[in-house]
Amino acid sequence: MKAFRAPAKWLTDVNADSAAALIAAAADIALIIDRKGVIRDIAFQSDGFAAEFVQIDTWLGKPWGSTVTVESRQKIDSFITAAADRDGHAGSANLSRHVNYPGAEGTDIPILFSLVPLGRSGETIAFGRDLRPLAALQQRLVDVQQSLERDYARLRQIETRYRILFQMSTEPVLILDAPSRRVTEANAAAQTLFGGGERLVGAAFGDLLDPTSDSAFDGLLNALRAGGRADDVRIKLARGDATDELHVVGFLFRQGDQQSILLRLAPVNALDPRHLLSDSKAKLLKLIESAPDGFVVTGPDGRVISANAAFLDMAQIVNEEQALGESLDRWLGRPGVDLGVLMANLREHGSVRLYPTALRDAFGGETDVEISAVNVMNAGKPSFGFAIRNVSRRPAQELLPPAGSRALPRSLEQIGELIGRLSLKDIVRETTEVIERLSIEAALNLTGDNRASAAEVLGLSRQSLYVKLRRYGMMDADPLGAD
After folding, report:
1. DSSP letter for each residue of 298-315
2. How far is the C-alpha of 388 from the C-alpha of 131, rounded, in Å?
3. Which residues on adjacent β-strands are paired with residue 116?
4. What is the residue-wise DSSP string for 362-400?
5. Which CATH architecture best describes the domain 169-273?
6. Contacts with 30 (C-beta within 8 Å, 6 or more apart), sequence order
7. Cα distance between residue 308 and residue 301, in whole Å
């Protein structure tokens, strides 16, 4: 504390009332403490602040330590002892302690007290300042600091992931400074491609190109400035007398007030012969893409990975991107049934032939189709290929099974003869049983005698299907797919 230079000159006429007013105005709370640490008088700067303390009317005549919280009592004892050790010299430096008072609302009230002795009488004035505004400010500072630390940690994690992906990418990737066109970053694949190692960073990208590619690269940059992204162009790298041709795709992005360009490079002629398709495989792939029948490849979850143009036309889809990631079940005639039956048989038997169903296009129209499918392993994971043929123009006779494959039951042929002999109720019951048996036979044929799949197609539980099979004497059939 820095005291007045000449208090005797200016404060001579200050009486007790004026001193009391000065003390009350100078502190949020002021206490007069005797030599034994007993409170003799109290002053508050405002009545509202006084109302926040518990039982302040009982403080007078009590030891100061009994009015504070338990953990602050030792501070008060050491506080009073330190004040007594100064022998009551008013000019001594003041003491300060932070103590807590129990609040009326249940929360503690932090007060910073400073002790000033009153001459040689032994009494001491304790000036108290409310620390809650300072504590709130400190808490806000701590919260902001923690938020900054969390954001910094998150940014570090994002940067680490970016670095890992950037360096592990098998495609050469470069980042250029847009104004200077110099390489600022290059991943390991790019350094291997250019053979420059660390010397690649800082080099002008134009110096790495064959002069015949300057115009193509300038066109790429102009497209980036106009739209932020450019379709792939072909450029050639200059390596002495030899040149390498590359596909280049560019992206323009901003970092702060600087613009950068990301270039993704791909050799026109793959460097690894394992990535090359043989002529026969390439022709087969082109044939499937151009085939009049729809062809779809899905993952093990039934979601589309690839689809040819014929399927897109049958489903009334504008482009392949609209189908990618969608479940094939979205376009099949019986949602939740057809795809489940197909997938179950593919997993069990490896292939399905001529599965009849309907294909529903984007506008709700349905087309009769036959689906043949196969299960293949790709890099250790199963994939499913579906060949979808439009049979809506096939004559109805061709869609029926051969004439000798299933003879109609006698009761169905002679329904007309039953009229007059049996009641309508009996005729309906017998006809219903015939239709029910034919439906079960058709479902078993459709699913390759897989009773679980047949029950799902018919909308029955397995137990109900078994009951009907026993009723119609069909349990002796060879259960190829029975579980």
Report:
1. E-TTSBEEEE-HHHHHHT
2. 78
3. 125
4. TTS-EEEEEEEEEEEEETTEEEEEEEEEE-TTS-HHHHS
5. 2-Layer Sandwich (3.30)
6. 23, 24, 42, 43, 44, 125, 126, 127, 128
7. 19
Cα angle at 103 between 99 and 107, to 5 degrees? 90
In the numeric block, the tokens 């790298």 are attached to 237
Question: For residues 182 and 205, is the Cβ–Cβ distance under 8 A?
Answer: yes
User: Which residues neighbour 468 within 8 Å (Cβ) at sequence distance 6 or greater?
Assistant: 436, 440, 460
Model confidence at 272, in pLDDT bands (50, 70, 90)? very low
pLDDT at 417 over 60: no
265-269, 285-289, 333-337, 393-397 — which is least confidently predicted?
Answer: 393-397
CB atoms within 10 A of CB 471: 13
Rounded to whole angstroms, the Cα distance separating 162 from 173 reads 13
- The amino acid at 292: P
HSE-CB for 53 with a 13 A CA cutoff: 22
304 and 324 in contact (C-beta within 8 Å)?
Answer: yes
Which residues are bridge partners to 127 per DSSP? 30, 114
Domain 277-400 sits in CATH 3.30.450.20? yes
Strand 229-239 with 242-255, pairing: antiparallel
The domain spans of the chain are 7-130, 169-273, 277-400, 408-483
Average pLDDT in the chain: 79
Report the percent of the chain where pLDDT is more than 70: 80
- Using the structure block, give the residue that is written with the tokens 């000019």: 91
Regarding the domain delimited by 408-483, which CATH topology (the fold level of the hierarchy) does it fall under?
Answer: Arc Repressor Mutant, subunit A (1.10.10)
Fold annotation for 7-130: Beta-Lactamase (3.30.450)
Q: What one-character DSSP code corresponds to residue 455?
A: H
Tokens of 280: 């026969």
> What are the residues whose beta carbons fall under 8 Å from the beta carbon of 383, sequence distance 6 or more?
297, 298, 299, 300, 305, 375, 376, 377
Predicted confidence (pLDDT) at residue 116 exceeds the cutoff of 50 = yes
- Cα separation, 55 vs 212, in Å, equals 92
Span 394-403, average pLDDT: 50
Q: What token pair was written down for 225?
A: 């400035």
Work out the burial of residue 315: count CB atoms within 10 Å of its CB; fewer than 13 is exposed, 13-18 middle, 19 or more buried: buried
Beta pairing, strands 182-186 & 229-239: unpaired
Alpha helices in 231-291 (DSSP H): 279-290
DSSP 272: S
Whether 7-130 shares its CATH topology with 277-400 is answered yes
